[in-house]
Amino acid sequence: xxxxxxxxxxxxxxxxxxxxxxxxxxxxxxxxxxxxxxxxxxxxxxxxxxxxxxxxxxxxxxxxxxxxxxxxxxxxxxxxxxxxxxxxxxxxxxxxxxxxxxxxxxxxxxxxxxxxxxxxxxxxxxxxxxxxxxxxxxxxxxxxxxxxxxxxxxxxxxxxxxxxxxxxxxxxxxxxxxxx
Length: 180
Fold this sequence. Notes:
Elements: H1 20-44, H2 53-75, H3 92-112, H4 119-144, H5 151-166, H6 176-179
């Protein structure tokens, strides 16, 4: 059987006190754990529900979000007074990559939504999401290399995207604020 030193009454060495940043991080990590546990329970219980193609897509996105959250949680460090700080690995590149994946999935849910909309509105939402993603890529490439020859193609594509949205059959049903 697995017996840890605390079960035997042996006190583990205390290496250092946690900083305020580490304490705050652990508070937020506990909140993340609670939210992730709820998401896992929802994901486990979402089978067998009759839904449309959009509902299936939303379910798939939610499942991917949950799995990305589990992956993120598995690589996040857990500072402790019972370990040297150097033992905690902060793999910032992996954390950033998985976090971006979660944010992009969230955008898909925001744009596609889970409410019932017409096929035309669903198409418009898809176009807006594509424009959003392409704008982000454009800004990243432009910041990295303002002289990138591929930027011109992005600019032309962005104009086509804007026109496709402005001329979409559903656009007139929205208020001016919603259009912006």
